[in-house]
């Protein structure tokens, strides 16, 4: 089942790029054209084999400048269109993505190492993102404010102009659509800088948008390294806002660069989310939820439920059931239809996962399942790690405090509701969290007390483009998706129109 990939995937990727881009050559997408970079070579490695399947060159400052010029010109054209016309084109974008869905999912599967079944779901969600924001284009309305003078005062939501978006390697096509759709809905142009490790699907996505009819150059994809191409985009005068999805360490650098230019940014950073199970929960559902919370996408999700907080009365049973289920999860080559857990995306992250598990064991954690790399036939030298359950973990240890970003869950016990809240909030992160309980009052109390931008009750990882998403603490600031995410891409202008025939001079309302 699934589809066949031979060798390191080079041949399959070349076929897919020819189909989707019209060429097997690769570079940055600038004003509708693929342009080769001028910098160092960047190697793309198949996570399932550990072998290079494509090499391209870092874009660099000159290509970023060309992309910025194209974006400025295209944004003027886009903003001059009626909101209805923009919405109709965005709807066509969704249709274009659906038409290319299978090929786009296969490209994502090989280059990012995500199971094909997951890639198909994520591509479908990207199409939904453009359909959703298509409906918002003609509904971005201001207010008429009844100020106490003879003026008509109203507000307008206007685009920034050009925004730079930097997206991660764990879900490149999903995060690309997640950011592009609201940005262009609000009237902006985009400089998209995907991770240098996974640039293929994002570039194809932008090409599909142009095929749907949006102006060439409205969405430019600049492919290259963060410290060169990414920095050039952030510091370019055309960039008026920066959106970043990634690690807190890099987010701090980006926030600093933005601050030096006095431009705003949105940061969607890491997490160490607490998934809390009480004795009155439906344990069958809670155990399945605990697996999905941390083992899907091989744990490479910012909202991963990496801390499983379990009441001491059911602690032993939950550990045994989650560990038993973890040992049965199909781990393997991502293009196999039956595989649920694919490889870690890259060698650096693979080593990070191994290091944190080793530290956890040294600090007293007990391996209930996994705890080591997986040997996968046909995926020689790939970055596979077994779904891992660590029991007897203390919340103050490194494995419980650092983001693992791998298929590893730390199970921590608690005695009562108060302790559960304290443990959940004992983290510098605040991206997500969940509680499993039959007590409605407790569910609301936990939702109110846990420091997290998203909180689930008796479920996990329910995310939709219609709902706002973002974090507390070191998980970042600002919101993506939903109406709140759309407003992140607008500036509010207050307009004052004198309506009196003979207006009196109003001294009381001047602003110093």
Annotation, overall tally of beta strands: 22
- What does the overall shape look like? globular
Helix content: 25-40%
What is the CA-based Rg, rounded?
24 Å
Largest beta sheet: strand ordering: 14-15-16-13-12-18-19
**Could you report the average pLDDT, rounded to the nearest whole number?**
96
Largest sheet, in brief, is: 7 strands, mixed
List unreliable stretches of 5+ residues. none
How much strand?
15-25%
Going by helix content, strand content and strand pairing, the class is: alpha/beta
Number of alpha- plus pi-helical segments: 16
Q: End-to-end distance, in Å?
A: 69 Å
From the structure above, extract its key features:
alpha/beta; six-stranded mixed beta sheet; globular
Topology:
Blueprint: H1 10-21, E1 28-30, E2 33-35, E3 41-46, E4 51-57, H2 61-80, H3 83-99, H4 101-112, H5 116-134, E5 144-145, E6 151-159, E7 162-166, H6 172-185, E8 189-193, H7 200-212, E9 219-221, H8 226-235, E10 239-245, H9 248-261, E11 265-268, E12 274-277, H10 283-295, E13 307-311, H11 315-328, H12 347-362, E14 366-369, E15 388-391, H13 398-401, E16 408-414, H14 417-425, E17 429-430, E18 432-436, H15 440-449, E19 454-457, E20 472-473, E21 476-477, H16 482-487, E22 490-498
Parallel strand pairs: 7-8, 7-10, 8-9, 10-11, 12-13, 12-18, 13-16, 15-16, 18-19
Antiparallel strand pairs: 1-2, 3-4, 5-6, 6-22, 11-21, 14-15, 17-20
Helix pairs in contact: 1-4, 2-8, 3-5, 3-7, 4-5, 4-7, 5-6, 10-11
